Amino acid sequence: MSDLGSIAILLSFFITIYSLAACAVAARTGSRAFAQSGGNGIVSVAFLLLVAVCCLVYELVTLDFSLRYVALNTSTDLPVIYRVTALWAGQAGSLLLWSLILSLYMAFVVLRSRKKGGDPYVNIVLCAVSVFFLFLVAYVEDPFEKLGVAVGEGRGLNPILQNGYMAIHPVTLYVGYVGITVPFAFGIAALLSGRLGDEWIRNCRKYALFSWMFLSAGLLLGARWAYLELGWGGYWAWDPVENAAFMPWLAGTAFLHSVMIQERKAMLKKWNMILLIITFFLSIFGTFITRSGIVSSVHSFARSDIGPLFLGFMVFILLFSFALLVYRSKELESEERFDSVLSRESAFLFNNLLFLAAAFSVFLGTIFPVLSEAFTGKNILVGPPYFNAVGVPIGLVLILLMGIGPLISWKKASTANLKRNFVFPGVVFTVVLLALLVFGLREPVALLSFALCGFVAATVFLEYFRGIRVRSGRGENPVSAFFNLISRNRRRYGGYIVHLGVVLLVIGITASSLFVTQKEVILEKGDSFSLGRYDLVFHGVRFISNDAKDGFSAELSIENNGRSVATMYPEKNIYKYEGNREINQETEVALRSTFRDDLYLILSEVDRSGKVNVRALLNPMVNWIWAGGFVIVLGAIVTMWPEGRRKKESGA
Amino acid sequence: MNRFFHKILSGGLVLSLALLIAFQVNADTLEDQIADISGELMCPVCEGQSVAESNAQLARDMRAIVKTKLLEGHSKEEIIDYFVSSYGETILASPPPRGFSAILWLLPVLSVLIGAAIILRTIRSYRVEEKK
Fold first, then answer.
1. What is the pLDDT of residue B25?
2. Fewer Cβ within 10 Å of end Cβ, chain B: N or C?
């Protein structure tokens, strides 16, 4: 099987080079035959890589320890599901998966195109990116590399990766990450071919949104995994690898907003191109950070020495793209102008500025330790205090803009427009602020954040209310008016749903990061302590043991006003199989989750006499974050939903 | 009617700002203070986790030191300085805005200001052009 996989990878590499050449010929000569042949090559590569991935999965599941990758990432005690997910636990497998996802996107783009074989210019860019990754898989990080001597047992999978979320989080993130390549290819193709109308924007918008949705979901799934598995009470650590995925998200969000101006007003053409290049660059940079281990992080299980190649590739992308942009810059002049600071255009510009400033700050903070070491020789860390100090003000202004943007009029807002649209949200803002003050909230950031969330929710409500009122004025009942409203203008109202999801998310993040109640206690059997409204009683610790691990499980009963509400069992485990792993201990937190707050228990130490060291946290409103994530994905799906049914409706 | 709303709006804003300033009291519990201080220190033996977050023995000991020092009446700055003097500046979760690290703190602010200035200038230049 491993030979088959190797052959499939090598074939993919050479066929992609062929497709690149064929598409280049087609682009120069306009030959449909070459374009079609290049497109066929792309589709066949998708099939070949699927075969290669299946081969690797087969080897992982059957534990063929003669392969280096299998020996490094699995062991005989590993359940089958985690043998499959070991596909993306290590370097070579991740890169192979990356290539497969890219090739599937490419095949989709080719097959969906109206022209047979697809647009040769788009294919050139896609193939060029693909060739780089396939080169890495074929010659630098070969997943099918054989060990000189087969070993009897593998090194095993890091226990913190043995979690259900780890089975979906990386793939989701990759689909998002890799997807950015497609809009990038459309943009560069427009520059290459000189067809700079807004056609390329319309063609790539859905791909951009699709990968944005997966990136968002992947980030949140990763946060959820960190929250459940890493056992430190939080979900976001500003870890370099988290930042790596967050940066393209920020730049991509800016892009998704500013393309609307180009579509509507034919402005910002250069700017959108720059945003797209930055977004793609950041996605490659993210892969580089994750895969090279240049900055230390909790994700450091993914290190290796492919750094220089990535660095070269990144420099190439930047030089090539910007040279092309300069070459075409005369043809990218705006057709319309800005009129006023008080306009939707300018709200979008400030949105872009802040998203980019955020991406830049995160970028700076992520690479700064490397810079500091290079220039001053000093070893420093840049962590949460920096990112929070920079991120919170930017975030708050962005929320404000999220409320202003959709309601302020294009070109120039009149006083009438401002009054008509912003009195109600303004009142909601004030009422929320006053109400929270009356209830005793004194944290300025939280007050502002919640009040702004009220403001944004009010704008969304206002827009829906107006739309529904107009429709029900024509005799529709409000419920069907609601659904018709969405289906008639999916982009607009889907976008509002996304905004509502962001509101939920921001409420959850604000509450859970500013109002944590926590205690660290040493308990003997029978001891009790209180945390917020709960009383916790410790009933002793139990030794647990199975094939894979030894561990301790502490029993705590939770009471609220003398009423027992739950019994919780935080665990501390030591995995038996030592292998070559660095980490073989993990804490398994116990969690009682409601929309009001999460009770989060960590068993950090058990001593011989049965005394335990427990950290207990009461994290308010964490569930709002996950709920917000669901709403964001829902909104994105509504926005992307194909328009096919709309024609039927308007015919009826 | 609109004027009425405006009055409510501006009145509410002024009132809430006044309340905000009047009630700016720091009633942080001891646990909050420990979490706050240890959040600015990195756990030296664990990769990428702060002292506040880590479950390692050393991090727990360091939290205990923070607690003792707080009870002895030391300020946040004194406690952080204490850890810097025994572990060096690598213990800090983010570098202070001094020396080379000032770049880290200044650049984001500068980038926003410069960006905003560019946007405002662009819009204004168009308007001037139109008037001519």
1. 46
2. C
